[in-house]
Each structure stands twice: as C-alpha cells, then as structure tokens.
Q: What sequence folds into this?
C-alpha cells in the first residue's frame, strides 16, 4: 500500500508539471521507494542519489568539499548544497535533500542523535531549509524525515503556483 | 524491524571488509532503505543512485548513451553497466543494479511486465547477471527484485572469499 503522502506528492507535482530529484542520506532511499510504489511516478520523479558517505556527496551531486569541511555534513549548508546539487545534476525543477544523525550513536552536544537538516530548492531557486531533532528510534527518525521532506516539496510546489 | 537479509548483507560484507554501492531504478531506493535501517551500515555501504529516468543513468553513474540506445534500459547490458558504473563512481568493491518493468503497464512481448535485469559486479570485475520475470503486483515485484539483488551481492561476496 503506497504512502498517501507520496500519492499526494505525485499528483501535486504532475498537476503543476514540476519534476523532482531527491538526495537521501539517513533515509537511504525511503522517499524514492515510496515514490516508485506509485505507477506513473516517472512523470514527476527523475531519480535520486543516496550519498551515504561524504565523497559521493561530492562526486555524485557536486557538493563542495570545502563546504563539507567547513560546515560538516549535518548542516544547513550541506543540506541546501545537496538539494541544489541533485536538482541541477538531474535537471529537475525541485531538489530535496536531508542529512542527519539517525542514531542510536553518533550524536554530540551540538548535534544530538535525531538531528536532521532538510532542504528543498524549488523553482526560481527558492530555498526552504529546516532543522529538526527527532525523538524516535532509528527507523522512526528515518520515517519522520522522509515525511517532512515530502511536505517541504509540497510547500515549495504550492508556493511556486502562487508566483 | 530491519529486514533479516539486509542484516546478513551488512554482517557478511563487514566480515570480508567489502564495500557496496547500489543502483536502483524499479526499487527506487528500497535496498538503501533496508540497509540504512541497520546501525553501523556505513562500514559497508558507500551509497547509491536511483536513476529512474534514462539520462541520470548516463550523468550520475556513467552508463553509455549508445549502450542504452542499442540495448534499451531493460537489458543485461544496461544492468551490468549500471552495476559497474555505480561501483566505479562510488569507489566501492561491489556494485549491484537492477532495471526492469514493475507494471502495471509498460510491458511488451519481449519484455513483459515483471521483467527485470539484475547485475552485480564484484571484486576482480566478476559479473553476475540475471533476468527474472516476476509475477506479483508492482510492490511485490519491487520487493522480489530487492531481495534477489541482495542475494546476488551475498553470492559475489562468498565467491570472493573463495579466491
């Protein structure tokens, strides 16, 4: 049974003739999995990248090595660069990306387990970025991130229709 | 609850110090999702690409445009090129890829709905390729493909230990 929010995503973007590219790290491909449960998703989804290690963020979708060195991979700057990078590399209208610490280990005082930065770069290069600190387990955190990323895309699409 | 076969994948590759890169089309990221349900998967998984349209197969992981034109994207040649391409682009030991027709439409006489080509390129450039014609629905076909891809990697890893 496909996720209702994924169906809403496909319908909304198709209605507006907008295409999407995704860059997933923590979620590993969960958003793409939801999308491909829906027949006809190719109208909307160009594809995605799951650069789990840092260097595919650089090699696959063109995130700058210096940016990752300066800000870290779990940062607003990294999330925005990933969203813009995957959008531009795949020539889509909208790019969405997330990068965080799903746990159960790997957290720090400034970036506790559950921290995730999500970003969406929409038409006209409008940027939506958001930090959350989820409080679920690893699988729950992944799911929360995936849902919120889809919501960010829906918000970007709605806003693009108003301009 | 993480998939048992994904846990087996991580344990087996970690034991042999082998890394993996994935290229998913039909499954959209399902394999990466299973992998990232497991804490510590970064020991093994470098990341992946989900080139749903054809041109990200070319732009993201270096599949040749002429190859896709000559053989089509649902072919042994495309699956092998995707597996080798994602392995080389992400500098992993093993690359696994799949490309098919999940349905419910899009089939033809020579490539009916449910057809999928899967390929794994392992250490020493050994190639494992396999065609299946699944008989489930879209979600079922995706799941069967993801499981069989993981099995191909396990076979490649086992064989690499014997050489």
A:
């Amino acid at each position: 049974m496909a996720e209702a929010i994924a169906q809403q995503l496909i319908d909304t973007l198709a209605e507006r003739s907008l295409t999407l590219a995704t860059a997933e790290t923590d979620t590993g491909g969960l958003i793409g999995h939801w999308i491909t449960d829906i027949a006809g998703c190719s109208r909307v989804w160009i594809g995605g990248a799951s650069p789990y290690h840092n260097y595919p963020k650089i090699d696959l979708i063109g995130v700058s090595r210096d940016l990752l060195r300066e800000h870290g991979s779990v940062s607003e700057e990294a999330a925005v660069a990933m969203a813009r990078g995957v959008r531009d590399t795949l020539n889509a209208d909208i790019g969405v990306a997330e990068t965080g610490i799903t746990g159960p280990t790997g957290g720090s005082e400034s970036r506790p387990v559950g921290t995730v930065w999500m970003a969406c770069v929409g038409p006209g290069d409008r940027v939506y970025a958001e930090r959350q600190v989820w409080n679920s387990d690893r699988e729950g955190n992944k799911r929360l991130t995936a849902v919120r990323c889809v919501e960010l895309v829906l918000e970007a699409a709605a806003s693009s229709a108003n301009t």
